[in-house]
Structure to design on (678 residues):
DNA sequence: TTTATTACCGAAACCGGTTTCGTAAATTAT
DNA sequence: ATAATTTACGAAACCGGTTTCGGTAATAAA
């Protein structure tokens, strides 16, 4: 049994394809009788319009592309969920791809999305992306784009971010508020905007509290892995016994730091306080529970989709709205690792 | 500047659309000169075929649907990654949706996928799915389907699973091997196949080692959350001091159990050993590190896609292969929580 | 009764490719 | 030289909807 098409329906009823289509789409110029006839038969034959044909006609796929640096990642999982839920409510499906935090891959995956004719793209840059040809060509091709989380100020489009400077400043201030004086920062050396901003926030907090920035307490790591956190902690443990607090720019780094201190019998938080960044599920499970910055992924995903959606709608209606940058609120989650 | 189409190319070159199409698709009946001409112009105008038209013609979308019970979940994140990587290599995009571990939602999301005309579906059932009308209608509509992880034996299709019985048996045997005698099981009461099988494996191991199954040590929880694990541990702690080991059917449950024991000054593993299930990243971060069963999500995702892909290809060529059930190997990861 | 409206329907164009089939020209075989 | 192939190309159908536009018949207004 082949799929039922409009042609089949119109043939059976002895009417034209046009009328059948109109009946299904609530056009005014269809008599009640005819409409009922069509609707009944459509239901009986379990008719669903062929979306390929609809897509070709409307030139839209009702699918959007979502590029995340890493899929197996608590924060980005929440992004994905937020996007998918919001999209689903508007009848959009989401194709998810991963850039592997690599520029080349990001370009490739973006191309793949465009070949599928997605109606818009949500993108968080790879750590090593500092060339923006690919997104600029997107924009010149009039494909709606929303950048989220790891963005670039050089691109003129809708964005949704957290205020990394402010959040990092709050994290550092929290450490200062509980009495810490020698605060180390552990950050990855790749210069993504988020890393840079968290670094700025750290320095800003020091400055505002008349604490001198000490280059030796500024530990750069290869990446943001658990292992890198451990290495960083070892550096601190071996060379800087005076340190009484660590701000790590990601939770995983923070956990690596925490683990290593524990292994070396450094009491957390009695001897040293630790705060991370993102509020991964992980942080509620460490011993002691890790203080961190809440970075609401689901909400960011939802907002990102909403921005994209309104841009898609505006495009259809040929209206041009100025681009927005939505800043999502973060807050300090104070747990046992900072006291 | 509008998008370049085949029509535009053929008009510019003064040839027919057919010939232009053939040139681009390596047909034999195009002269070398004409072919070069078309290819050059296509490159110059940055021509990419309109996939809507291709889809309509070929009646395939080169998109597959992936339904996961929960997106923010270490195991399923790995599934998603495995699927996406494998799919991408074959030119397929993946639309990801979440069933929320709820049957109604699962049906709804499946419908949404079908409306997008996906070429196939990968599905892991919600915990409360025990009605299979939706997937049966899929199969009768000849839409390729592969079930993974949470499957049903009642459905005749390709599947990829781990041997939950064997894995749970291995976990329990591991506890026995290290000398435990009173082994409790913590499992969610919803009767998904995986839960049932892990329960079976637990009992099988007891049986093979002449340990009597004790209904009182069989703790049923509402769900598989951290909280449920904590509640279960409290039950054990308050009523069954004799228990010297706990097998929890998920890592999160196990971590809840672990946390609660620690809070009540029960030494792990000295007084009680704990083993979980799945090998989440979390398990490497708890104190003590949690023993568990490795459940290789990425590999399962890859295998699931490969099965789906070959079914899609077979369908196109009108060949019918018998359905397979691929069983992925698991192994015990012995860490500090079992000694 | 004549004219103006309204209600209802269908032919056909359109979206942009792919593929079949017929045919004229060029080449080879006889 | 003619006949048989081969080469190269294009017209047109096709995929399955949506939408415009024109026209007839029924109704309302003059």
């Amino acid at each position: 049994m082949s799929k039922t098409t409009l042609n089949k329906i119109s043939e059976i009823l002895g009417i034209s394809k046009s009328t059948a289509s109109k009946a299904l789409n609530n056009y005014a110029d269809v008599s009640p009788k005819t409409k009922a006839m069509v609707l009944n038969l459509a239901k009986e034959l379990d008719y669903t319009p062929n979306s390929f044909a609809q897509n070709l006609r409307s030139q839209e796929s009702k699918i959007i592309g979502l590029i995340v640096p890493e899929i197996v990642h608590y924060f980005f999982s929440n992004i994905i969920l937020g996007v998918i839920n919001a999209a689903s409510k508007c009848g959009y499906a989401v194709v998810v791809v991963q850039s592997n935090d690599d520029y080349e891959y990001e370009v490739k995956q973006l191309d793949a999305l465009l070949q599928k004719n997605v109606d818009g793209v949500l993108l968080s840059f790879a750590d090593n992306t500092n060339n923006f040809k690919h997104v600029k060509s997107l924009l010149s091709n009039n494909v709606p784009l929303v950048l989220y989380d790891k963005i670039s100020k050089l691109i003129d489009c809708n964005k949704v971010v957290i205020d990394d400077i402010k959040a990092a400043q709050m994290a550092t201030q929290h450490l200062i508020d509980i009495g810490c004086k020698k605060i180390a920062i552990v950050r990855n050396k790749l210069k993504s905007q988020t890393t840079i901003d968290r670094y700025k926030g750290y320095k800003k907090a020091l400055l505002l509290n008349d604490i001198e920035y000490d280059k030796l307490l500024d530990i750069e790591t290869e990446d943001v892995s658990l292992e890198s956190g451990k290495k960083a902690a070892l550096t601190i443990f071996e060379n800087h016994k005076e340190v009484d607090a660590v701000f790590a720019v990601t939770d995983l780094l923070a956990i690596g730091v925490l683990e290593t201190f524990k292994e070396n019998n450094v009491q957390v938080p009695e001897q040293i306080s630790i705060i991370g960044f993102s509020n991964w599920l992980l942080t509620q499970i460490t011993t002691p529970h890790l203080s961190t910055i809440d970075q609401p992924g689901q909400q960011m995903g939802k907002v990102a989709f909403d921005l994209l959606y309104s841009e898609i709608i505006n495009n259809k209606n040929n209206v041009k709205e100025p681009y927005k940058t939505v800043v999502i609120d973060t807050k300090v989650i104070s747990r046992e690792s900072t006291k």
